[in-house]
Amino acid sequence: MSPFTGWRAALRIARRDAMRAKGRSALVVAMIALPVLGVTAADVTYRSVDSTEAEQLTAQMGSADALFSDPGMGPLQQMPDGNQYDMVGDTPPEGDVPPVDMRTAFPKGARAITIRSVPASVTTAYGLADTDIVEFPTSDPMARGKVDLVEGEFPRGTGEMAATKPFLESSGLHIGSRTTVKSAGRTYTITGVVEEPTDLKSQKLYADPGAVIAPWQTAADRDKKVLPPNTGSTEWLVNGSGGAGIRWDDVLAANKAGALVMSRQVVLDPPPDSEVPMARSDTSYYSNDSGEVSAAVVTVVTMALLEIVLLAGPAFAVGARRSRRQLGLLGTCGGDRRHVRAVVLSGGLVLGAVGAVTGVAAGLLLTVVFRPLIEDWAGQRFGSLLLKPTELLVIAALGLVTGLLAAFAPAIVAARQSVLESLTGRRGVRRSSRVLPTVGACVLALGVAVAAYGGTSGNSTWVAGGSVVAELGLLACIPVIVGLLGRLGRRLPISPRMALRDAARNRGRTAPAVAAVMAAVAGSVAIATYMSSSLAESDQDYTPMLARGTMVLSSTDAKTAERLPLARASVEQNIAVTGGHADFSRVWAGSDCNVYYEDENSCGSMELVKPTGKGHTCPLNTKGAKELAARLSAEEHRQMMRSPACMDEYISSGSFSSEANNIVVAGPDLLRTYVKLDDPAAAAALAAGTPVLLNQAYAKDGEVTLKAVHTYNAKDEKNRKLHPGAARKSTDRLKVYVADAEYAATPGIRMIMPERTAERLGLHTQPSGSVYAVPHPPSDADEQRVSAAIDQAGGGLWLQTERGPGDREDIILLILTLFAGVVTLGAAAITTGLAKADAEADLTTLSAVGAPPRVRRTLSGFQCVVVALTGVLLGTAAGLVPAVALRMVDLRNAMEAMREEPMESAFTPIVLPWATIGLLAVVVPLLAGVLAAGLTRSRLTLARRAG
């Protein structure tokens, strides 16, 4: 007799049972297919975004054979891929390397087109915007793949341009609109929308060669001006003669002429190292292949596998419960426990196979359907929809194994039931095992200890392993935890009391559902906690250019400062300014001298002299800084970094000036608008002529030392005549009002000096700009309107806004929350459905003794809440283990870096995602309860008793 005979019968029974219970089967298939779908979509997306080498070459050089460029170092040698190169011979003197004559570098008979870009100001539908204009024949066949047409037509001629979609959205323009390049003084018509496949978010304009830069150069020569320096950055796309491509000997010949070459043929089929001069030499080059995988990724993937195994368990518990009578009949026909287990496991095999195939197919289909959205989100086009059959088979096998593992526990439970219990529907009475929770508690403690050890030692593998072990231990404890729930309802009304006792009495169906919810929430909370903590760390390390909620209008010199009144009027007319404004001035050295810049055109300098000693000198920037850093904890180091003495070591000068002194001439309005210092005493001090010092480390006995050096520029004949002789130094001691230590972090300002104090010291001042308090950063349209008004007034002014540390990845936290919420609702709904099937007799009895109809609804709602809330709370606790351990890994690495470089930040906070936890712990259980109560019939359909 074949050993597979029994399994063939079991598979037939499982297939027929699945066809009879289509609703339950569809639910099981959906629960298995859902994670398979997600993994399939993620795999295909990752493979497609991670383009092949050939696709990367197409994105860089279009359909051309090679990309030529001039690094400006003369003859050179390079690696075949063109990413590493070095000059040949000694370093030439600066400015002595002439540009490469590309006619000598191109192979004989080759055809080339140029790519040249220039930053420019162009008119928009709102005003004026800064963007990059690229002179590039986009209609040439060699451009295909580097720049593609999306809509309209390529520009043809010197009066047309094409634009990227982000530029059109920002500027309010469209196909057919006309835009003027201010510096060139010419107007162009936008004829089409183009895109760079590798950068869908770029804002650029494309024009044919000679359309912009040549007339701009003509206008610059006429006005005796100089074009921006990066207009000289030119690249060439080259096609070899006769379709032969660009060979390695062509690359070597171009290197001798001083050209760097990236050849498609050479990169895809590189020469041996013996033919590569740079490889034969001992020149080292960098490799970015660390061979290490992110600790967060390892942990998340490991927990995701555990989640997939647990997700379908409650659904199979439903099937096993509802098939008790059928399994009992199998026993009456001679089947033993082995056959009962085979039937239940066959159900897992059948439904797991269907779920795996469905999930893979749905994942592929959804990836194709949502490909444009995925590409927009990733910011680049797929080179092609890349499918790896081996990986897809592994994913499908994972879904199949998921079905088997999910059916394993229900199979064991079903096999233990006697035939009489199965036929009569009686549950029997069994004492709970004390071994499993004991072992689970020990495993939980061991897992937490292993994860903590991995965190302190910096080993991400231990973190991942310990987190999984801890979650497995918590899973083993779930039956006991569920059993304790029944004791919590003694003083509650009837519906919640029955729900708690029903969950405790039927742990076989409640525990798997709680486990599924716990696993889903644990993964989401782990990722959300790690991300929230990382965002808090980046926010702490971020150095703002301006104070939050402010905007600065600045001028560059005395001539442009005359246009400030018109610019201020434009700002106040076009941008919502809610908190007032304050004007400020810059300190000059004198009427016959340039601004106090420390550059080649200066004729003097001025600085605040920091006293020496404790409270003035930063200990982290002294001789014994490394020894000190080795003794500090992360929090002690953070406090020291934020002290006034160390603050100015890494706080930028902001947008007020480029001088190192950070002294601004202004009145009390600046305290309120920018510094956010609401101190009447400080305002009174400024009004009385006393400077306000924001960084107290520069004060000693309430005074500061101001040192000025009046010199001349030896290269400037005029300044040398105006300032003959040796440099003249002057030092003044000023009584100041010292602000609290927290204001030392104010970007761009170290001291605010009243106008009359500057005049008393013989310092000349020049109106420099204004500060505005704004409720939110201005939009692109607002900034373009202001830019247009400034340009109309003569230009030379700029507007800067503090936009914070950049884009936040809140969308990922939202997706995690939605995923965990859907799983929680699904598992709770499954358990509620099983509870309704199991509790029909109890509900009939309640109805017979006069219980009101609403009890049925409220009981279903509370049963759903019990499962959802218990799973969420346990999942939150389980998710914090890997998140905290991973942050411990980060802390260890940060501490090592800080001890090597004492000024490096070691701040590694652990921030709980309260919004995510609140949604999962409050909103989702309540929603599950309301839905369960709303979808439950309040009256029973009484069935005729058999027999």
Automatic annotation (TrEMBL):
The keyword Plastid does not apply. The chain crosses the membrane at residues 293-319, 340-373, 393-414, 435-456, 462-489, 510-531, 811-830, 864-886, 906-935. Signal peptide: none annotated. It is a multi-pass membrane protein. InterPro entries: ABC3_permease_C, Membrane_comp_ABC_pdt. It is found in: Cell membrane. Residues 300-418 form the ABC3 transporter permease C-terminal domain. PANTHER family: BLL1001 PROTEIN, MEMBRANE COMPONENT OF PREDICTED ABC SUPERFAMILY METABOLITE UPTAKE TRANSPORTER. This is ABC transporter permease. It comes from Streptomyces poriferorum. The lineage of its organism: Bacteria, Bacillati, Actinomycetota, Actinomycetes, Kitasatosporales.
